[in-house]
């Protein structure tokens, strides 16, 4: 994968830690829309074997997404907002990114074989397992907040944002 990427090296993206949620149905529901964005941004060299495989995976994703009676029901607004709090930043090799995609589809296949409906509301799981944005109780020196406790200062530069590598992420196989 690394030699066939249009932009080789490490790739950075947002995705869901399956292990963090510890609930397969909620993981698939939270990760499904994020996976669509990730597949849309991934590009391999034209006519490479991975470019052809990516097209197959994108078609498979689109068939699931565009089905008349979708197997993965869209989350309501509250559930979607809560699932977004479960996003983690990954910075991995292209190969490790593709392993995450493969694991997602393997998990989905198992759930579909069990005839899971994905109709369950996962809001409680997201609230319990995903950190909510912290609201400061008192403003630090030089940091302004509005009446609702929202920080008014500019965001931190990207260099200070945390990122996760596959090597440091939790998981039984050492990967995310």
Describe this structure in words.
Pfam families: CSF-1. GO terms for molecular function: cytokine activity; growth factor activity. Residues 165-176 have a biased composition (Low complexity). One of its GO terms (biological process) is positive regulation of macrophage differentiation. Helix content is 42%, strand content 7%. It has helices at 18-21, 24-41, 49-65, 77-84, 94-113, 123-129; strands at 11-16, 87-92. With 176 residues, it is mainly alpha-helical. The model is unreliable at 134-176 (pLDDT under 50). It has a two-stranded antiparallel sheet with strand order 1-2. The chain has a domain at 22-129: Growth Hormone, Chain: A.
Question: Can you tag this structure with a few keywords?
Answer:
176 residues, mainly alpha, Growth Hormone, Chain: A, two-stranded antiparallel sheet, 6 helices, MCSF-1, CSF1 factor, growth factor activity
Number of strands: 2
Which shape, going by the Cα principal axes? globular
Helical stretch tally: 6
Mean of residue pLDDT values: 72
- Based on the coordinates given, report the CATH architecture of the domain at 22-129: Up-down Bundle
Which structural class best describes the helix and strand composition? mainly alpha
Terminus-to-terminus distance: 18 Å
What low-confidence regions span 5 or more consecutive residues with pLDDT below 50?
134-176
The CATH topology assignment of the domain at 22-129 is Growth Hormone, Chain: A
Helical content, roughly? 40-55%
């Amino acid at each position: 994968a690394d030699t066939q990427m249009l932009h080789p090296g490490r790739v950075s993206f947002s995705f869901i830690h399956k292990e963090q949620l510890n609930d397969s149905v909620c993981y698939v529901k939270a990760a499904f829309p994020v996976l669509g964005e990730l597949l849309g941004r991934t590009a391999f060299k034209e006519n490479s074997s991975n470019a052809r495989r990516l097209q197959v995976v994108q078609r498979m994703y689109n068939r699931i997404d565009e089905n008349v009676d979708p197997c993965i029901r869209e989350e309501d607004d509250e559930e979607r907002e809560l699932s977004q709090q479960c996003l983690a930043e990954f910075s991995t090799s292209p190969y490790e990114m593709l392993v995450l995609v493969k694991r997602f589809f393997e998990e989905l296949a198992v759930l579909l074989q069990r005839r899971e409906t994905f109709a369950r509301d996962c809001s409680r799981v997201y609230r319990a397992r995903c950190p909510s944005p912290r609201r400061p109780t008192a403003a630090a020196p030089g940091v302004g907040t509005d009446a609702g406790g929202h920080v008014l200062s500019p965001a931190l530069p990207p260099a200070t944002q945390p990122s996760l590598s596959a090597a440091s992420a939790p998981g039984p196989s050492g990967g995310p």
